[in-house]
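A.,

Following up on our hallway conversation. Structure tokens first:
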């Protein structure tokens, strides 16, 4: 299979494309690709194109890009899952973002919740969001996704609940809902957009659960065991993918 490379949507056009910086390092220094090697480009918005390396210089390469076409993994009518996940300590958050992208989520919204250990504001929050977006791009490239999920700005629970108010299905995963399975809240008919909310290391507070339910979220459990925050997010999306026959 051809090596995949993310290209911003406004740069994915037929013709010559110059790559430098990290992309050049990845293609030429890491993968050691040379002239005539095939590269599959994708813009993260549902388009792709086949290219070949035309020139390799000291610090940049020129690709000859063919015609653009729709990404093959984009399925019309597939459910779009939007993950509302807490900020998680250490590299476990990076792992969570990576796996959620691999599983097919459409967006990830990191949240600062009452019991979150991690607190980020200002420039630190912006920098961390940019890092998560880079991780999402790399994960989409690796798992051959045509779309790169958006990493929303780090926010609090209230605005996040308001933004998904019109979604057809909203689920909050809470250890107090062990008697209500995820399968029981997924409708038989297809839904376009689904929001899933999981709690942080210490769990959601009663007030946060009540706020989610008031906003139309259905409480559900993931079994009798208490899962880490990143495990709960990945498990929830995995089960949804199975019940819905894959995600968009």
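Then the amino acids I'd put at each of the 248 positions:
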């Amino acid at each position: 299979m051809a090596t995949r490379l993310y290209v911003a949507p406004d740069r994915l056009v037929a013709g010559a494309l110059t790559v430098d910086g990290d992309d050049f390092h990845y293609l030429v220094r890491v993968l050691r690709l040379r002239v005539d090697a095939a590269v599959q480009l994708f813009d993260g918005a549902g388009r792709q194109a086949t290219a070949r390396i035309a020139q390799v210089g000291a610090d940049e390469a020129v690709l000859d890009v063919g015609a653009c076409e729709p990404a093959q993994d984009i399925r019309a009518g597939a459910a779009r899952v939007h993950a509302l996940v807490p900020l998680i300590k250490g590299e476990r958050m990076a792992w969570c973002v990576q796996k959620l992208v691999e599983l097919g989520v459409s967006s990830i919204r990191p949240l600062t919740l009452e019991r979150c250990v991690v607190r980020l504001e200002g420039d630190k929050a912006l920098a961390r969001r940019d890092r998560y977006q880079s991780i999402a791009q790399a994960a989409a490239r690796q798992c051959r996704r045509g779309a790169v999920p958006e990493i929303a700005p780090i926010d609090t629970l209230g605005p996040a609940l308001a933004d998904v108010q019109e979604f057809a299905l909203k689920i909050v995963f809470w250890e107090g809902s062990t008697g209500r399975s995820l399968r029981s809240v997924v409708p038989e008919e297809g839904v376009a957009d689904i929001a899933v909310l999981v709690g942080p290391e210490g769990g959601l507070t009663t007030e946060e659960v009540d706020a989610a339910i008031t906003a139309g979220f259905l409480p559900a459990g993931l079994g009798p065991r208490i899962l880490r925050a990143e495990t709960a997010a990945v498990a929830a999306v995995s089960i949804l993918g199975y019940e819905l026959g894959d995600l968009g």
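The first strand starts at residue 3 and ends at 6. Curious whether your intuition agrees with the design.

B.
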